[in-house]
Amino acid sequence: MDSGLIPIKPAPRAPEAPPPELPPLDRLNPDSDFSAFMDRRVDDGLRRLALKKLFGDPRLNLADGLDVFSEDYSLLEDLPQEMVAKLEHVRRTLRRPEPETEKEREAEPQQQATQEIDAEQEVEKQHDENDGDEPKDVARGQDT
Predict the structure, then answer these.
(1) Where are the beta strands (DSSP E) in the chain?
(2) Where are the domains of the chain?
(3) Model-level pTM greater than 0.90?
(4) How many angstroms separate the CA atoms of 111 and 95, rounded?
């Protein structure tokens, strides 16, 4: 069955140029030109060896102190008991007490919702009582 399409032949590939001439690895130093090793035609293993030689130099293999993962954080010292006591005091002072039981944790959002609904109903009640009168400061229950 002829679909009427003309088959397209791929363009012939140009012969790939040989990789660039590379200096011997044993003569490389940090002042050498490593750009030839970055060519895509150079074998990945050979490129890695050249970079290993470059970054193995002590002048380029220094930690700058800004590497956040350079320390072993599994060996941290425990906080002194005095510091722990102060932190616990601050937590209790600045935060409301945490519910002790599971029931209290479940009841807390319900109590908060009930308080909000009660406040809204109080505002509506005062608004209804105030219809036709002078405006009233609902928050203080005073005439304005």
Answers:
(1) 136-137, 142-143
(2) 25-55, 101-130
(3) no
(4) 18
Per-state percent for the chain, helix, strand, coil, to nearest 5: 45, 5, 55
Q: Which residue has the tokens 């940090």?
A: 30
What's the CA gap between 41 and 82, in Å, rounded? 63
Pairing status of strand 142-143 against strand 136-137: antiparallel
Q: What is the dihedral of CA 107, 109, 112, 117, to 10 degrees?
A: -100
pLDDT at 19: 75
> Which distant-in-sequence residues (6+ apart) come within 8 Å of 56 by Cβ?
none
For residue range 37-48, list pLDDT tens digits in order: 998 888 999 999
**pLDDT tens track for 53-76:** 888 888 887 777 677 777 777 777
Torsion angle of the four alpha carbons 81, 87, 92, 94, in this order, in degrees rounded to the nearest 10: 170
